[in-house]
Write a structure and sequence with these properties.
two-stranded antiparallel ribbon, 2 strands, 74% helix, 22 helices, 521 residues, mainly alpha
Length: 521
């Protein structure tokens, strides 16, 4: 092992140094601190890039601050280097954006300090080499993010959202702490790599079975899974850079936790089944509710709920490399979507209203789904010949994604659709199938060797795969047919209920006293 520490490990220290300076000058326009915050974020990005270069040259490495049961360690590997580079890049973009967005705010210096401290904690999290490091990073993220959510403390909605976030987030911390204690009892170590090796060699002891269940619970709470998803849709009272960082980075922490403990979680069929069912339902629920939202930021928040559910589903299917690819793609997309939301509203407001949209008939919908699946099957066959057989889980996931494309194909096959639209939608289906298998293969080559392969499905796994594909197909068909029954009286009532998330968030408010908190605090 090289005597030179991985450069990515130094990135949190740079950010914390400037964060401490900014917190000492919390007021308006604190000299050159906004510019210094951006430079610190850029330096963290450069250090993360150097860490990736070290990984490519010298291989994985680990450094421990404390040994023994409470092992504090950072690990440089494919997962850590990829996530550190991603977090540092998004952090730099958000910090750069914040310079102008927060300019002149009364607590401008405090914002930059808290933002850099949060970024430092996330960088520690994604490079963690032990359960103790994960726990400390999660607690630090929760504490710093709660203060960012309360940046405008006079807003009752902000106080309510911050309270719900803290309750759900720290409940996840408690579940993770209990899982760590069980893992320590089962394996005698808190080192993540050592635990993975022990599971591969000897399976899961009873204590580790319980730990796997708690890890799934912690990940579900961190990713705003159903039914405790409400806090993620209510954090819009914080400044836009906070929303961008939260939705593009921090909410992925549950997925990172599952990836770090993939060997342990995958060895528990019950844990994997829970991820498939909870993740699949959350993805469908979030996607349906998102379609009813009129506010762009709220729609993006529900999109994140759906995407995090899909992330849990991928983990439950054992598609770990694809889950990591999903985190990278979703983070980049969602950061851009939040930071560009204002410009998008102005662009739409300045557009001419489009003409009537082609409404597909049931026959057109049936033809579109048939065409999309035929194209998908053909592309899958070609990739199987070129790159080898695909797992049933990967093929099923691709089918779920193609169902989303089939909605566009249905419009192209409508009786009143122009021929150009039909050609474009057909090409879109083909392009989506090609892109899925191309990115899947790339993810397998890049991250697959460091992550466990998808398990061979048994009867339970086959039943869950079939249920997931069928559920996504039914929802996609209903969406494609929506214009035909959109004006039915029953539909209007259902739309209202869906727009309010079936009132699950209101029930959580009552349980925690959120209404009183918003009214009297």
């Amino acid at each position: 092992m090289s005597s030179i520490p991985p450069m990515g490990f130094l990135a949190p220290l740079v950010l914390l140094a400037v964060a401490a300076l900014a917190l000492r000058h919390p007021g308006r326009r604190p000299r050159a601190l906004p510019r210094l915050a951006e430079i610190a974020a850029l330096a963290a990005l450069a250090l993360a890039g150097l860490g990736l270069a070290q990984l490519l040259v010298a291989g994985p490495a680990q450094r421990a601050l404390f040994d023994g049961p409470v092992l504090l360690a950072l690990r440089l590997d494919g997962l850590g280097a990829t996530m550190a580079l991603l977090v540092a890049f998004i952090g730099w973009i958000v910090t750069r954006y914040s310079r102008s967005y927060l300019d002149g705010e009364a607590r401008e210096g405090a914002f930059h300090g808290l933002m850099l401290a949060t970024l430092a904690a996330v960088l520690v999290l994604v490079q963690a080499g032990s359960l103790a490091t994960l726990i400390l990073a999660f607690v630090a993220i929760g504490a710093a993010l709660r203060r960012l959510l309360l940046f405008y403390p006079d807003r009752p909605e902000a106080r309510r959202a911050a309270t719900k976030f803290a309750l759900v987030w720290h409940a996840g911390d408690a579940a993770l702490l209990a899982a760590a204690a069980l893992c320590l009892a089962a394996f005698g170590t808190a080192d993540l790599a050592a635990m993975g090796a022990a599971v591969a060699a000897g399976g899961l002891p009873p204590a580790a079975q319980a730990a796997a269940a708690l890890l799934v619970l912690a990940a579900a709470l961190k990713t705003a899974a159903f039914p405790l998803h409400g806090w993620l849709t209510e954090v819009m009272e914080a400044p836009t850079p906070v929303s961008a960082l939260l939705h593009a980075g921090i909410v992925n922490a549950g997925g990172v936790l599952l990836l770090r403990t993939a060997e342990l979680v995958q060895a528990s069929p019950g844990a994997m089944a829970a991820l498939v069912m909870l993740g699949g339902f959350t993805a469908l629920f979030g996607a349906v509710v998102m379609l009813t939202q009129s506010a762009i930021k709220t729609a993006l928040a529900w999109s994140t709920v759906a995407q995090m559910g899909f992330l849990l589903l991928q983990c439950g299917l054992g598609l770990w490399a694809l889950a990591l690819l999903h985190i990278v793609a979703h983070s980049l997309y969602k950061a851009h979507a939040f930071l560009a939301s204002g410009g998008a509203i102005r662009a739409v407001a300045g557009m001419r209203r489009p003409g009537p949209v082609a409404v597909p008939s049931p026959g057109a919908v049936a033809r579109s789904f048939g065409l999309a699946l035929v194209l998908y099957g053909a592309v899958a066959a070609v990739f199987t010949v070129v790159a080898g057989p695909k797992s049933p889980q990967a093929l099923a996931l691709g089918a779920m994604l193609i169902f989303g494309v089939a909605y566009l194909v249905a419009q192209g096959l409508a009786d009143t659709a122009p021929a150009a639209l039909t050609r474009r939608t057909g090409l879109a289906a083909l392009g989506a199938a090609l892109a899925y298998f191309t990115f899947q293969q790339a993810a397998h080559w890049v991250w697959g060797p460091a992550l466990p392969p998808a398990p061979a499905p048994g009867p339970l796994e086959w039943a869950l795969i079939a249920l997931a594909v069928l559920s996504f197909g039914v929802v996609a068909v209903a969406q494609a047919l929506f214009p035909l029954w959109a004006h039915h009286p029953a539909t209007a009532g259902l739309r209202v209920h869906l727009a309010n998330g079936l009132y699950l968030n209101a029930l959580l408010d009552r349980l925690i006293g959120g209404f009183r908190l918003a009214k009297h605090d």
